[in-house]
Amino acid sequence: MIITVLIAGVHDPKWPVSPDSATDSPADYRIMSPFDEAALEIALRVRDARPGTVICVRVAGGGASAKIARAAAALNIADVATLANDRPWDQAAMARALASLCEGADLVLIGREFGDCDDGLVPPLLAGVLGLPFFGRAQTVEVGDAIRFMREAERETETLTLFAPLVVSVTNDRRTRLRKPLMKNVMFARQMDIPAIAAYPATSSAASLGAWHPGAAQRAATDCTMVGGGVHKQAAALAELLWESRA
Q: CA-based angle 141:135:147, to the nearest 5?
């Protein structure tokens, strides 16, 4: 079985975002997102149960993603490479670029939000480009006689059994926290040569980014009233404010 795990990484929240790093974070400032980690952990669990499984990890972001790629390699994954993504804002172009990396995979795992500049469109677009079924927001996996993905929707639990090539987007869940690597594998990953896959052609999409501007320095002023005291006092104060707003 071949599993391809697609990782985007995000800006490390420990470092402030400046206009210079908002769209091009330095390598030391990028880490796996919780969704990336959950997707990778699910792949590792499948391999644990089925030792013949081959895991291929592809990390978007080019050279700035080498740190993340080594973190994946430290989990005893030999096939790790980075992908240059010159258009992270163009979800359709990104999906087409990622599709070229998934040929021959029996299972494609990807975080439900692919990177910082995404609204959740890349995973379903990727499934559409590949022409494969899509299962979104998987929370965990059960591997026995079959591989079953699970997600919770309100008061219901939904499961899907893998029986043909499938694209699964993964959300973070306390049951799917990424394991810690062995120190010997960490040392090996530090010396590992991480291949780089060239950026996809700029002509892969008709869309082009006209301009990019940092957010407004100041927000509009808003009236704010602090309500203190106990619960009953707060409720009475809120009721009075709401009553006054009717006037």
A: 30
Amino acid at the residue 37: E
CATH number for position 115: 3.40.50.620
Give domain status of residue 210, yes or no.
no
The torsion angles phi and psi of 113, rounded to 5 degrees, stand at: -120, 120
Q: Report whether 63 contacts 178 (CB < 8 A).
A: no
**Closest Cα partner for 105 from 125, 81, 137, 130?**
130
40 vs 107: CA distance, rounded Å: 12
Tell whether the torsion through CA atoms of 158, 161, 166 and 167 is positive or negative: positive
The pair of three-digit structure tokens given for residue 154, joined into one six-digit string: 């309100």
Domain membership of residue 120 as a residue range: 2-202
The two most distant CA atoms of the chain are separated, in Å, by: 71
Over residues 141-177, the pLDDT tens digits come to: 999 999 999 999 878 899 999 999 999 999 999 999 9
Tens-digit pLDDT profile for residues 28-75: 778 999 999 999 999 999 999 999 999 999 999 888 889 999 999 999
Phi, psi of 131 (to 5 degrees): 70, 35
- Read off the pTM: 0.79
Q: How many helices (H) and strands (E) does the chain have?
A: 6, 12
Domain contains 246: no
Pairing outcome for strands 54-60 and 2-7: parallel
- Residue located via tokens 């997707």: 39
- Contact call for residues 13 and 33 (beta carbons, < 8 A): no
Establish if 226 belongs to a structural domain: no
Which distant-in-sequence residues (6+ apart) come within 8 Å of 145 by Cβ?
Answer: none
How many domains in the chain?
1
Residue 81 counted as domain residue? yes
